[in-house]
Design a protein that fits this description.
Blueprint (H helix, E strand, L loop, with lengths): L18 H14 L5 E10 L8 E6 L3 E2 L5 E2 L3 E6 L3 E3 L2 E3 L8 E6 L5 H6 L16 E5 L9 E5 L2 E5 L3 E3 L6 H16 L2 E5 L2 E4 L13 E3 L2
Antiparallel strand pairs: 1-2, 1-8, 2-5, 3-4, 6-7, 8-9, 10-11, 12-15, 13-14
């Protein structure tokens, strides 16, 4: 059985052509549909990872397109999309996106191509507005459970690594503090002996900085 609404396609409905106001409202809605704001996307590829200037990703919008007669069409690739890194000055937390990640793409109200090239103030590269081409990637939604992480809880901070935790700057103040305390602890402890009147003895070997490892295993 068919209904009256079966003859309407896309955004039209039985009221679209009824009266001047409904016609104008339909035109307004069609123009609003061209204003892209934000959408969930999947990362396809990544460039500029590691200790380097913030790079770019290629993404695909996850909400498929639908034609007027309800045929689903996947989106194509959007290339050269800048991604977000937590950074202040020359200090940063580097967690680069990876292919397969899901995040949000934000679409700018003006053409940002010239700003991406210059990495500073620049005029818009064209007159386009709210375009898929002018997006930035914010990662971290709808992804699976991590296997390596830093977790902040009410009880403290948990660091879990599948490999090792490496301290890059061996002259850092934090490492010196840990080293000094560890050396003092190791060199101050005593051993129990079985000789009457001499229940304890000092360590047989005194530790120094050269015997501390630069790699600490984490659970």
């Amino acid at each position: 059985m068919t209904t009256d609404t079966d003859q309407y396609y896309g955004q039209t409905d039985p009221t679209t052509g009824q009266g001047e106001w409904n016609k104008q409202r339909f035109l307004i809605h069609q123009q609003m549909a061209n204003l892209n704001t934000s959408m969930p996307v999947e990362v396809l590829s990544v460039t500029g990872v590691g200790v380097s200037p913030v790079g770019f990703v290629s993404v695909r919008i996850l909400v498929d397109q639908v034609t007027g007669n309800d045929v689903t069409i996947p989106h194509g690739e959007i290339a050269n999309v800048p991604y977000v890194r937590i950074q202040g000055g020359s200090n940063a937390v580097i967690i680069d996106p990876q292919a397969g990640d899901i995040g949000m793409a934000l679409f700018c109200s003006r053409d940002i191509s010239a700003v991406k090239s210059a990495r500073q103030s620049a005029p818009p590269g064209s007159r386009r507005m709210y375009s898929f081409s002018d997006c930035a990637y914010l990662g971290g939604i709808l992804n699976g459970a991590p296997t390596q992480y830093i977790q902040f809880t009410e009880g403290g901070i948990l660091i879990h690594s599948t490999g090792g935790v490496s301290v890059g700057n061996t002259n850092a103040a934090v490492r010196r503090l840990v080293d000094d305390r560890m050396l003092a602890f190791m060199n101050a402890h005593t051993h129990t002996t079985g000789v009457p009147g001499q229940p304890t003895s000092v360590p047989n070997q005194v530790m120094d900085q050269n015997q501390l490892t630069t790699l600490t295993k984490a659970n």
